[in-house]
Amino acid sequence: MSLTPLLQELIGALRALPGVGPKSAQRMALHLLERDRSGALTLAEALEQAVERVGECATCRNLSEQEQCAICEDSARDAGVVCVLESPVDLMAVEQTGGFNGVYFVLKGHLSPIDGIGPDELGLERLFARVDAGQVRELILATNPTVEGEATAHYIAEQLQDSDVNLTRIAHGVPVGGELEFVDGGTLAHAFAGRRSLKRSVDE
Amino acid sequence: MSLTPLLQELIGALRALPGVGPKSAQRMALHLLERDRSGALTLAEALEQAVERVGECATCRNLSEQEQCAICEDSARDAGVVCVLESPVDLMAVEQTGGFNGVYFVLKGHLSPIDGIGPDELGLERLFARVDAGQVRELILATNPTVEGEATAHYIAEQLQDSDVNLTRIAHGVPVGGELEFVDGGTLAHAFAGRRSLKRSVDE
Ligand SMILES: [Zn+2]
Ligand SMILES: [Zn+2]
Fold first, then answer.
1. Zinc fingers (C4-type) span which residues (chains A, B) (predicted)?
2. Model confidence over B176-203: pLDDT tens digits?
3. B126 CA from centroid of ligand 2 (Å)
4. Considering Cα of A198, then A199, then A201, then A204, what sign does the dihedral take?
5. What chain B residue is nearest to A7 in terms of C-alpha separation?
6. Is B5 domain-assigned?
7. Nearest CA to CA, how far is A19 from chain B (Å)?
């Protein structure tokens, strides 16, 4: 056996990274030990610091080192338009389009009764409280266009049917069955422009 | 800006990993923070432990946590046949063929005057001392079939022309210009079987 126990541990630990199989984990471990030991220590420190100090924004549940995230604190953003997303990765994808000037609410998942994920786990009370307080003019439901994402959007829309908030769902452009984080910026911008209301009109 | 400073540091640090660009570093960082914080801490610890405790074998320069590596300590291996390689990754590739029962000497590089890498940096004194002490029957030069690898093999062969050791070079099968670590096991085994002597015969 040519791998030392600590090397084997390191290779195993590197497999926690998404997209890293046994072969690339081995190459990464050897690369760090042979050619970039200071890079390895910097990475270890960065991991520890991030795990210890990056929490979630008290308002929107986005990743944040402060009580409030930079977006919620930015007075140039329109706090009356709230985009509801499944994860911080999706938030980043929307931010990178540069076309959205509202704020966010990050569910950190979607409704999934089988996994015990209900409204509480998604922090929906907090979102509904913002709506009830009259702080929100429009709620853009940008959950993934998957079965679970649609069900989650549907649930939120049902809960808010009687409120005054404008409820919209991003629509055109995002491929059905796909995930927001893999959609290009142009498609996403298009999806935002084509959003439609989920409120039942009175004569419906 | 939707990334916190610590997240940006973590993403930067992840790029020390070979094959990881800005986009995958971002996905890795978010995955760890959102879904696998204990995996992140395990990875940090594994990195620190490996950097601190994995050194090199005093005999063959392979990565080792002990004074001697497991291969040099294995009495079932033939210490009279020494395979000279550029890196531990190459060693691992040869080990994985399962067809070599000798021991190794890892140069950790190749001769490269332009980068200030000469015989000293490759530990060649240590290798030559083993040959001079009569411990080696055959020295298999398995440096990469690149210009530098060939030059390094040539240099070692020149230095040992007057010794009694059998000097061989792996030959058939390894694609010229390629690197050992990317060659499949069958090709490598073939290359070992087809090795040829580098000693000039008397009547040459
Ligand atoms: Zn926030
Ligand atoms: Zn050794």
1. 57-72
2. 566 777 777 766 776 676 666 666 665 5
3. 12
4. positive
5. B50
6. no
7. 9
List the 111-170 stretch of A: residues with Cβ below 8 A of B: none
Torsion of CA A63, A64, A67, A71, to 10 degrees: -90
* Token representation of residue B154: 């040539």
Question: In the β-sheet with B196-197, what is the strand arrangement from edge to edge?
Answer: B102-106, B78-85, B138-141, B166-169, B196-197
Residues from chain B contacting residue A13 (CB–CB below 8 Å): 39, 42-43, 45-47
**Residues A117-157: tens digit of each pLDDT:** 999 999 999 999 999 998 899 999 998 877 898 899 999 99
B2/A48 touch (CB, cutoff 8 Å), yes or no: no
Q: Are B64 and A4 in contact (CB under 8 A)?
A: yes
ipTM surpasses cut 0.90: no
Residue B68 lies in a domain: no
Is residue B84, in this structure, part of any structural domain at all? Answer: yes
Which residues span the domain enclosing B111?
78-170
Residue A96 in any domain: the answer is: yes
Pairwise CA distance, residues A59 & A73, whole Å? 10
Min Cα separation A199/chain B (Å): 30
Q: CATH no. for residue B116?
A: 3.40.1360.10
The total domain count for chain A is 1
Residues 6+ apart with CB under 8 A from B53: A6, B65
Q: Which of B121, B119, B171 is nearest to B141 (CA)?
A: B171
Contacts of A47 (CB under 8 A, 6+ apart): B10, B13, B32, B40, B41, B43, B44, B47
Question: Are B40 and A50 in contact (CB < 8 Å)?
Answer: yes
Residue B139 CA to residue B161 CA, distance in Å, equals 12
What tokens does A134 get?
A: 């009259």
Using the beta-carbon criterion (under 8 Å), do A39 and B16 form an inter-chain contact? yes
pTM of the model: 0.75
